[in-house]
Amino acid sequence: MQSTETKTTCSYCGVGCGIIATTDAKNYVSVRGDENHPVNKGMLCSKGMNLHYVANDTSDRILYPEMRWSKSQPLQLVDWDTAMDRAAAVFSSIIKKYGPDSVGFYVSGQCLTEEYYIANKLVKGFLKTNNIDTNSRLCMSSAVVGYKKAFGEDAVPISYDDIELADTFLITGANPAWCHPILFRRLENHREKNKKVKVIVIDPRKTDTAATADLHLQITPGTDVLLYHALAKRIIEKGYNDSHFIKNHTQNYEAYKAIIMATSIENAAKICGIPMIQIEQAVDLIGKAEGFMTLWAMGLNQSAIGVDKNTALINLSLLTGHVGKPGSGPFSLTGQPNAMGGREVGGMANLLAVHKDLANPEHRQEVADFWGVDSISPNPGLTATEMFEALDSGKMKAIWIICTNPLVSLPNARKAEAALAKAKFVVVQDISHKAETTKYADLLLPAAGWLEKEGTMTNSERRISYLAKGINPPGEALADVDILLRFAKKMKFSGFDYNSTEEIYKEFCHMTRDTNMDISFLNYDRLKNEGTFQWPVSDYRHPGTPRLFEDKKFFTPSQKANFTVPAAIENTSGQPNDEFPFILTTGRIRDQWHTMTKTGKVSRLMTHKPTPFLEINPIDAYKKGIKEGDLVEIASKNGLVRVKANITTTIKEGVVFLPMHWGRQLNTDLSRANNLTNTIVDPVSKEPDFKFTLVAVTKYVKP
Ligand code: SF4
């Protein structure tokens, strides 16, 4: 057999780089960047270029369904029929006894769009509960609300090609040099060619992104809204605001302006920990920009006031008229490869497909009619953290977890772990035995991984890619969508008799007809033959839409963009005190992905940062008697972590940083950052407050 080439997309971050995977005669996979892909033009970062190791190494894979009849028994191999019979029997009996809201599904931004769509149709349409949420709740739900408030819909206005057209970038709460590397490389290439390009970075850490910036505002965590208000005030005072755009294309400006003008710049500078001169410099760079882009990620979203941070930032783009024109606009970066696809199919507890809202009775009926069911429950669904609280309280009895590892990624992870242990029935559908969550499975289902199934994904810039299947999954692993369809069949639900994944996609595309995200003219053939498309795609010859709102008609009823007055100015998560004097922020490192079930098995990726660590400023370390490499204990009111200290001037005094990737190691959970994190969530987006937990740090002394 000759080698074959498969066009696909990287399964890690939301940049969505194109990959050519080559499978040789021995079924060995190798990868290279797709030179013709509009996103990466052949480039791959360290994670993407090592993706073949993950595909080739099946040593940790779950190969067959495993099941136990009682919690005291070990898991045993069973066939698929037995596994799905049991799943259907247990879910039916729990629903009959306790009602539909006693079960829930927790899915992932790594699911393909077809999988996401079917999971939501199954749960919201047929199981009659809205308890389906996604781990994307943990990373970008605040951005979803921010866009809806500003533009009337969850619509990312611009595309990566705008990077090469912009001259001023404000990167805030993001470290694309590590977390969206190919995007950052495009920005760096643009800077090299165009010396006029300026980059402002707002971050409490001097990350690799901040280190290359023209201006780094090393902000005190939690004070972002105040800083954006201060910038806005000086923009207005210096006449940099775009009065024509504001007058003709926005609403609620006067209310916003009243709040902004009441801001004391001196006070803001003090609270944000930023010199006045830097605020002035940032204002001049923004004010003189011809193309102004804001890029942000978890640093804004993962906050008790994440929505306010989003809207306050988007307001800066509206204020300066930098929306709907080349090289301009607000641009949230998604962390996962298909977080955006999930948003499109209503993959969150409060959403319905095609950007409809669960709380809207008309929207519920429209979707119910489309699916051929009487109704969709009006009960609000439980979000990610709420589902685990419901397991803890006994309100929810069973959970089905797909392609995510919540025991490492959820806040207050020990509590989440205790909650999962209380569940009557846990289904885990995953690829790897290494995922900590598999330990609690009563039913463990082997899922196909990257390159082992077909489907579509949407990246951060609304770009839809088709992912072809290149290899067969190992053992009896099945595509996630096939597992869900088998379950639907066992539940005797009609409406799941698809002959192919393509049929599912067709159904979803049909649903988008005449909406703002219309892709009803898109299909697998076009995606395979013509490449990727950015929605909307308004006819059979339409090439897709790189930039929204060029006509300045926004998706609000008035067609005007909305200035939103943030409800809160400063974080509501408390202030450092004698007991917990440090602010802990958690995040990613360059070569690891999420909970390391994939990147953790690639030895060359482990060389970058082989062990977990705490970043601490030298002044703080000195005060605490901590030396480089010392074991330190980090304590919050929720738990404890013990890792080595990494003393660095790159982190602001009073702030410490832990990577979020490590879970259980050598049977201890002491390197799991989320032992510490608080359970506060944004009141609107319900996104957790990962970037602000009060902690104490001490040198560990062995008893
Ligand atoms: Fe994959 Fe993101 Fe790296 Fe591109 S930038 S290769 S999508 S991890």
From TrEMBL:
<keyword id="KW-0560">Oxidoreductase</keyword>
<comment type="similarity">
    <text>Belongs to the prokaryotic molybdopterin-containing oxidoreductase family. NasA/NapA/NarB subfamily.</text>
</comment>
<keyword id="KW-0285">Flavoprotein</keyword>
<keyword id="KW-0411">Iron-sulfur</keyword>
<keyword id="KW-0408">Iron</keyword>
<protein>
    <submittedName>
        <fullName>Molybdopterin-dependent oxidoreductase</fullName>
    </submittedName>
</protein>
<feature type="domain" description="4Fe-4S Mo/W bis-MGD-type">
    <location>
        <begin position="3"/>
        <end position="59"/>
    </location>
</feature>
<keyword id="KW-0274">FAD</keyword>
<keyword id="KW-0004">4Fe-4S</keyword>
<keyword id="KW-0534">Nitrate assimilation</keyword>
<keyword id="KW-0500">Molybdenum</keyword>
<keyword id="KW-0479">Metal-binding</keyword>
